[in-house]
Amino acid sequence: MVTVLSFLVAIAILIAVHEWGHYRMAVACGVPVLRFSIGFGRPLWTWRNRRGTEFVVAALPLGGYVRMLDGREGPVPDGQRHLAFDAQPLRRRAAIVAAGPAANLLLAVLLYALVAWWGVPQALPVLASPTPDSLAERAGIRSGEWVTAVAPAQDEPRMLRSFDELRWHLTRAALDGQDVRLWLADAPQAPGREVALPLSALEARDVDARLFERIGIVAPWSAPQVGEVLPDSPAALAGLQPGDRVLAVDGEPMTDAQQLRARIRVAVDDAGRARAQRWRIERDGQPLEVVVTPRAERQGEGWVGRIGAMIGAAPAMTTVSLGPLDALAEGVRRTWEVSALSLQMFGKMLIGEASLRNLSGPLTIADYAGRSASLGLVPFLTFLALVSVSLGVLNLLPLPVLDGGHLMYYLWEAVAGRPLSEVWMERLQRGGVAILVALMSLAIFNDLARLLG
Hints:
Layout: H1 2-28, E1 33-48, E2 54-68, H2 90-118, E3 120-123, H3 135-138, E4 146-152, E5 158-159, H4 163-176, E6 180-185, E7 193-197, H5 209-215, E8 226-229, H6 234-237, E9 245-249, E10 252-253, H7 257-265, E11 277-283, E12 286-292, E13 295-299, E14 302-306, E15 309-311, E16 317-320, H8 324-351, H9 362-375, H10 377-396, H11 403-416, H12 422-451
Antiparallel strand pairs: 1-2, 3-16, 4-5, 4-6, 6-7, 8-15, 9-10, 9-11, 11-12, 13-14
Helix pairs in contact: 1-2, 1-9, 2-8, 2-10, 2-11, 8-10, 9-10
């Protein structure tokens, strides 16, 4: 229920802001707006303002529209012909069309700024053990090291405040095919060392957990501690209890939860047979030894071990908060970076350098809406900002039926000195609908593939 409500609230806000951008620009340009609708189908609520605009909330909330006075869509009274949308100069029509995506991008700036000013609890940039045979392991990165700064290629180093910032820089650099330099230290103010991660060798196509496993930086450092234990699980059968600290597995000291999770996963052979492990734990200050036999579970084409318990204590956290002006600058910077990354991903998918599996649809959006809402207001606002950027960028793509497609028509009109012919307009509109249907079908397929594992 939380997922559905969160999704509906998010979609309603984003659509309302997008259409409000079109509406306000039309009013500013003197174009009468006949209807402002959130959703399609049977009206559930209507209201008319003094300008004569009918505001509607309709039954199907997945979309919206602004209907303006337009000679192409119906008869226009002679006395209002000069006010119709299709009678406006090119610059005004382009401004009205562009105002919708611009409103979504402006909303993202404000949301990111609000979150940055409010303050976000984030994990400190302290690294867990690198995954085996990863770039981080080969670079000599150790468990418990702080990442004090990061820089792609030959850029100036940027100081880090949280693990989330580190993941963001690694994501961008991996997709750009750029190597990254990290500055590591044993404590925040301790003398550090510089290491290089050759991310250009990854040829990253997907932004997922596998990408960070190949990089070797998956999660922040947390203690190798047992959390919630499920009934009748291998952990329960072994006698493990919440709060147990794991000191060693088969004689190998455990330095963090990431290392412990890795040992559990590999306790299964290629045939799905689990191997018993001898754990040395500490409970209430007393050392104990237990035998844990993970349960084999199919993952993709192979097998992994699971014990039915949460592994890892909560990582050390910090609250990242900025002043009002700095927060606004952060909102602009973050919106710009996410927009650029979104366009880059679209381009890479178009030319085959990124997997089409990165395309997400309404099911994934609904899933993340519910998850973010359950975590609190700040995660939900961050999610809302991200989707608002995506909606703004998507609508600016030069595809017919999208706002960017209409701007493409206006560009042709500005260059050729005449509008696009009705014949070509109809052909392009049909092609645009076909492309959008194909993209939506692919996105829903990807959603189902993710949800079904």
